[in-house]
Give the backbone structure.
Amino acid sequence: MLLKSIISLFLLLCFPITILIAQDSLNTAIAQKGDGIYSLLRKQGVDPYITYDDFIALNLPRLRDSMHLYEGMTYIIPETSEESLEIAPEETEEDETTNKDETNSYEIFGEKYAEVPGKSERLKGTVYYLISGHGGPDPGAMTQTAGKSISEDEYAYDVTLRLARELLSHGALVYIIVRDPDDGIRDARILEMDKDELVLPDQTIPLNQKERLDQRVDAVNKLYLKHKGKHQRLVVTHVDSRSKGQNIDVFFYYHEKSKNGKKLAESIHNTFKKKYKKYQPNRSYSGTFEDRSNLYLVKKTLPAMTFIEIGNIRNKKDQRRILDYDNRQALAKWISEGVILDYEGK
């Protein structure tokens, strides 16, 4: 591929008119305002860490300082054998995962749920990154129930911990990106608010929104490179905050260029449809899965991912789904079943 890139660069420099005529047969993209090389490549569905050097070689005359894009300029996108942004998984041994019939202890889940018995090895060799929305100085959406204030970040975190425990029980390696040092899994309706959440490994969450999101993106992307070659997925959990009168079902977002992200979202979505049909046959499930590539975490993180909204914290009907800890456990269980469906259907 490198030789091909050098030849292409030579032709570009020596025969620019020929290249312009032939560009219809090349994969090209126009840089938009705010684009960098990594974001431009990712939009085109190729892994920027694999194709970065080839991109530089192909586009050097069109780069400022050999590394910056010009807004409005057309750039050649390198060919790649990858069908999506993720590297194909390989068979590996992962010492850190939970094995069937073994019990491991994790303090982050709290005393009651610290012991995690192994149920299976169905997710052995996989890596999952879990991010719960908001946290630290940002509680997310807030409302009151039974005279007490409640916030989005506490409920999203509880569902995330429960999901992590499920995934671990099936042999996955799990990274909980937003972590609270003293709030384990809580079997309570009212989850007391605090601001002591950290981002892995022990980073204080900044007040500025973009800095908060960049911190999470960096944490995930560094780990993604560490586990390069494995089946890696990211699940982001939020509690929506629409108008009080709007009742919503659980719905899912993904990146439009990521086939694996769409497949993950669709697998969990299909699982929810089946569960609703089984347990609530008298009502239809209206949750959807759709492209939301404009969301910052969807756009900037490297693993295939799904962004989940589990309900409207300001709606009384949705609050019953969110406040009841048995319902939060069911949500986590159903998401984990969708994750397994996605992996085993690869």
